[in-house]
Each structure stands twice: as C-alpha cells, then as structure tokens.
C-alpha cells in the first residue's frame, strides 16, 4: 500500500506539539533541579521562596477578606516584607496558588515561569529572523536551558518572582503582526506591576498611537477590575502606596542594580536629592532617544531593549531578577553574531552573557544587605554596580553600533509596501517564501521584527 502523505500543516502541528511538550518537560526538570540545588546550599536556602511566601500569604489574605496592605511577613533574613503589587495580581495569581503547600506552589510557579522563559526564547528567535521551524524548535529548548543559567533567571526561581510573566506579556505585544490588539499585553503587564508602563512611553515616541491607546485602556481596565473586586485595597494602593518604593527594601542594598542603587552606595546615602533626580531624568531622556533612534533605523527589538534598560536604570529599585528584560537582546545578538560571523560582536555578546551570569560582588565578598552607609573601595563600587554600568554602556555605545551596522539614509521607519526581502535563517539572503509574511512587513515598521538587512553583513 502507498503510505498516506502527511500534509505540511499536520507536520507543523506535530512539531509544535513536540516543541512545547519538550519545553514543559525541560521546565519541570529545571524547576526540580533548582529546588534540589538551592535548598541544599547554606546561602541560597535562606533565600528560597522568600518572595513567593509573601505572594502565598497575599492569596490567603484575600480569601480571608483581610486587607492586602496590612499584610507583613517577617523574614529571618530581610525583616518585614509587605505585599507590594496591585490587588489584581493577588487575585489572578496568588489566590489560586495559595491553595497549595509552599513546596508544591514553588514547583508549579517556577515550572510556569520557565515555560514562559521558553516562550520568550521562541519569540526572540523569531524576532531575530530564525525562520526554519525545526531549527527554531531545537534552539528554543537549548536556549531555555542556557537562559536558565543567567543570574536574573536564577534569582527569579530562588525568590519565586513574577517578572518572567511580565516580560512574556510585553514581548508578545511587540511581536504581533496585527495592529488590532497591539498594546494590550503591555497594559495588562503594567496592571500587574507598574514597571512595564515605560513601554507605553516607547509606543508614544514612536508614534504608534493605536497601540499606546490599547495599552493605556488595558492598564486602566486592570485598575478598574481591582476597584470592583477589592475596592478598599485598590484605593489604598493606587491612592499612594504605589509611589512608596522604600517598601521594596533598602535602596543601597547591593542586589539593587538601578542607577539610584549605584549612587546610594557610591555616596553612602539612601536619601534622594534633586541632583539624583536630574541624573536619572537625563538618563531617561537619553535612553528614550536611543530607543527612538533604533526604531527609526528599522530595529524595533533594539528599541525595545533600549527602553527596557532605560526603565531598569531610572527605577528607584531594580533588583537583579528585574533584568530578565535583557534576554531578548542576548538572543538577538547571538543570532546576529552567528549570521554575520562577526568575532567582535560574538565577543561582546559573550561579555554580556558573563556579566548577567556571574554574581561577581558575591565572589569578592561584598555584602548583599550591608549596613548603611557603605564604605567600598572604588573597584568594589564598580563591581557592585555591574548591571547599571553595563546598561549605561549599552545606551552609550549602542547608537554607534546601530549607525554603523543598520544604515538608513533617511532615518524613516520601514515602509509598509512594497515589503522588503529578508535574509533566511541560514543567512543566504533569500526572501520570505510564498505565503509567509516577510520580516519587518508591519504597518510603518510597527513590529519588533527587524527590517531587511538586519541579519546580514
């Protein structure tokens, strides 16, 4: 008998099922491995589920009808730990999770976080122009394992943090090819934790009015839901608590890798002064300008990364796990350096990976939560500010690299028509195949996908 041919659609569905089955299996295995490794380490076992414990308590608090913002968990290591997020976050995530014992909740939460990381790697590979489905599937699983070694991801798993879900929501928004829902993911992410609001600024400066409107509407909808379900808690949070960054911990703590944290340690002070705000305002304006420049040169991904780094720098508190937003940039740089066979770019990518993998300040004996004021030597200040200094270097050197490697004489965004040809996943320069949307073919360049030439020498 002649075997029945398998249609391309069925092969694609089977590959998709296999890919995400592998991602889920690897995620659970990594979550189990993290639990086994870190709960047996004297240092990290004290920090295991430190934030997740507060989250689970917030879910129980909502179920009992008490106030979220009267909740304070006493940590033997960190002292008083209040609930910091909007009411909707507790309703969506932590009420269901609170029905589980802490061990099971940690496994479920970390497994889901790693599945979200796999989705981030998958989207980032597509943004970087990896078109072959088989290659993309394999690289997604490999990238998931490698990305799980990054320090922001490791801290995310140890503490039981939420940032991977926020990154996925935002990245989904930027990778949409349809204009209709673009911005909704950003708005929802900002309603769960306000830091993604910086991406609405990016939408505005790049004149994507519909997406910015969608983002703002989605954000306001999350606030409204909070007021409908938990009106008193919502009034307390949005009425003032949202601005109290000091509730998140000491600004001078070494894991605070924001510009404010670096200045607090360098000046042995945690008191904000007017010139601190001026410095952060200048950095904010410069970072936004860099993001706009990258967008006009046809790279929405680099614009996305620039505005993400800007937000991390100017936030009063940016813990190490907040820096998961660099993952799409690292994936993009790795793919680009492979395609272009650029040793300098590969070396720079390797340096960035090392910076975001090794916790150098811990290796040289700098305390995590030192008494204030701190007294560090100059070289220790540099080590303790590894992330903000790296972020500043990216914003300073990035435009020079973009100007040289993404030339665009008129500085305009990519045209909607005619659609430009794109390089294939193997770098041969062939255009997109029949029935496949070409890279960067969004309306006015309104996608995170890179325009033609971004993946070629």
UniProtKB/TrEMBL annotation:
Per the record, what is one GO cellular component? plasma membrane
One example of the protein's molecular function in GO is: hexosyltransferase activity
Q: Could you tell me where the Basic and acidic residues compositional bias lies?
A: 446-457
Position of the signal peptide: none
Q: Which InterPro entries match?
A: GT87 (IPR018584)
Q: Which UniProt keywords apply?
A: Cell membrane, Glycosyltransferase, Membrane, Transferase, Transmembrane, Transmembrane helix
Q: Which parts of the chain span the membrane according to its record?
A: 17-38, 83-100, 107-130, 142-172, 184-205, 211-230, 275-295, 301-333, 345-366, 378-397
Query: Which compartment or compartments is the protein found in?
Result: Cell membrane
Q: Which domain of life is it from?
A: Bacteria
Q: Where is the composition biased (Low complexity)?
A: 411-426
Which Pfam family, an example, fits this chain? GT87
Q: How does it sit in the membrane?
A: Multi-pass membrane protein
**Where does it primarily localize?**
membrane
Positions of region (Disordered): 411-457
Concerning its family, UniProt says: Belongs to the glycosyltransferase 87 family.
By what name is this protein known?
Alpha-1,2-mannosyltransferase
């Amino acid at each position: 008998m002649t075997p029945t041919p398998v249609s391309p659609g069925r092969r694609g569905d089977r590959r998709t099922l296999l890919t995400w089955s592998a991602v889920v299996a690897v995620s659970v295995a990594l979550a189990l491995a993290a639990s086994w490794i870190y709960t047996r380490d004297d240092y990290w076992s004290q920090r295991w589920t430190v934030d997740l414990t507060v989250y689970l308590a917030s879910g129980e608090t909502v179920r009992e009808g008490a106030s979220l913002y009267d909740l304070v968990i006493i940590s033997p290591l960190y002292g008083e730990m209040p609930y910091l997020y909007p009411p909707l976050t507790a309703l969506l995530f932590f009420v269901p999770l609170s029905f589980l014992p802490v061990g099971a909740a940690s496994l479920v939460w970390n497994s889901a976080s790693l599945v979200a990381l796999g989705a981030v790697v998958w989207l980032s590979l597509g943004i970087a122009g990896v078109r072959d489905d088989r290659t993309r599937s394999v690289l997604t699983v490999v990238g998931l394992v490698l990305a799980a070694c990054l320090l922001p991801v490791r801290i995310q798993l140890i503490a039981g943090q939420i940032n991977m879900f926020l990154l996925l929501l935002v990245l989904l928004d930027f990778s949409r090819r349809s204009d209709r829902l673009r911005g909704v993911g950003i708005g929802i992410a900002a309603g769960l934790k306000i830091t993604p609001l910086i991406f609405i600024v990016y939408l505005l400066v790049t004149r994507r009015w519909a997406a910015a409107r969608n983002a703002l509407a989605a954000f306001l909808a999350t606030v409204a839901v909070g007021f409908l379900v938990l009106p008193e808690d919502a009034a307390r949070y949005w009425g003032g608590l949202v601005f109290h960054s000091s509730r998140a911990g000491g600004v001078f703590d070494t894991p605070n890798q924001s510009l404010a944290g670096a200045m607090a340690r360098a000046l042995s002070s945690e008191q904000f002064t007017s010139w601190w705000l001026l410095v952060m305002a200048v950095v904010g304006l410069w970072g936004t300008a860099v993001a706009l420049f990258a967008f006009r040169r046809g790279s929405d991904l680099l614009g996305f990364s620039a505005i993400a780094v800007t937000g991390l720098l100017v936030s009063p508190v940016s813990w190490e796990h907040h820096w998961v937003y660099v993952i799409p940039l690292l994936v993009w740089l790795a793919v680009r350096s492979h395609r272009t066979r650029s040793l300098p770019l590969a070396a720079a990518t390797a340096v960035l990976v090392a910076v975001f993998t090794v916790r150098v300040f811990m290796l040289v004996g700098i305390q995590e939560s030192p008494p204030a004021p701190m007294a560090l030597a100059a070289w220790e200040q540099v080590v303790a500010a590894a992330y903000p200094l790296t972020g500043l270097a990216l914003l300073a050197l990035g435009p020079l690299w973009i100007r040289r490697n993404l030339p665009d004489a008129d500085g305009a965004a990519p045209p909607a028509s005619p659609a430009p040809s794109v390089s294939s996943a193997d770098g041969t320069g062939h255009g997109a195949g029949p029935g496949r949307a070409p890279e960067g073919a969004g309306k006015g360049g309104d996608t995170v996908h890179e325009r033609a030439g971004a993946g070629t020498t």
